[in-house]
Amino acid sequence: MGKRDTRVAYINPIAAARAAGPIQQSGPSIRDYLSRPRPTWEEWKTMVSKKQGGSNTLAEWEKNMSDKFREDLKRDRERVLNKSKKKKKEKKRGKKRKRERSSSPSSSASSSSSSDSEQDSEAERREKRRKSKKTKKKRKRRHDYTSSDDESDKPSKSHSERRKKSKKHHKRKKRRDSDSSDND
Predict the structure, then answer these.
(1) Which family does it belong to (predicted)?
(2) What is d(CA 152, CA 69) in angstroms, rounded to the nearest whole number?
(3) What is this structure's pTM?
């Protein structure tokens, strides 16, 4: 058996290209590119300004988006305002119910015929009376506490004794007044 022939034929690429002949051009040549029509300075400025202005579709899209955003804002504002109005109404109802509960049946009948401003003034008067009663009670308690401390120094009268005395004093006044009217 003999040896294999591993040799490859070498072809010079440049020589092969020359042998094939001139190449057919596909597309414009350099000469064509350089001699193409070019815009004037004014035409170029107008083209650039159009590009900087942006596309019409983009402007329309932005306008639509801003309109939608405004509508959404409007809806949200209305919803928030309605919620706050409802809360205010509920508070007013609650206050009216409290006033009606706290007032007596006779005063509620008379207040239902009167206006809201009269109801408010009545409620304020009641509140003032209640507060003044509270403060009087507090003062009395304080006085009782302070008087209980002083009991060791001097004897003080009990509440019932003081009351009896004031009743007697009142009766005496009535007698005097009635006596004086009889004498006239």
Answers:
(1) Belongs to the FAM133 family.
(2) 82
(3) 0.25
